[in-house]
Design a protein that fits this description.
3-stranded parallel sheet, 3 helices, flat, alpha/beta
């Protein structure tokens, strides 16, 4: 699952429900600084970090993320998936 953009408290339960309904194996990628930390939007309506709702496997930094950071994050996810397949 790619989580992109600012997460509000209103959408957080829906996002959690989608995650719970996903098939195993679950992979979550937090895409951008707004998703990872809530960015500069410190208010009552914004979740301050997606990791308070979902377990995140890969964080891709930037606002917006640079193409190099996206490719690096995807390659890290690919290695993580390959390591899990080898462990099974």
């Amino acid at each position: 699952m790619f989580v992109v953009g600012t997460i509000s408290h209103k959408i957080a339960p829906v996002l959690r429900r989608v995650y719970d309904q996903m098939c195993e194996t679950k992979w979550v990628v937090a895409f951008g600084v707004c998703t990872c930390t809530g960015a500069s939007m410190i208010n009552y309506a914004t979740v301050q970090g997606i990791d308070t709702i979902l377990p995140v496997d890969i964080y891709i930094p930037g606002c917006p993320p640079r193409p190099e950071a996206v490719l690096d994050g995807l390659m890290k996810l690919q290695t993580k998936i390959e390591k899990q397949k080898q462990a099974l």
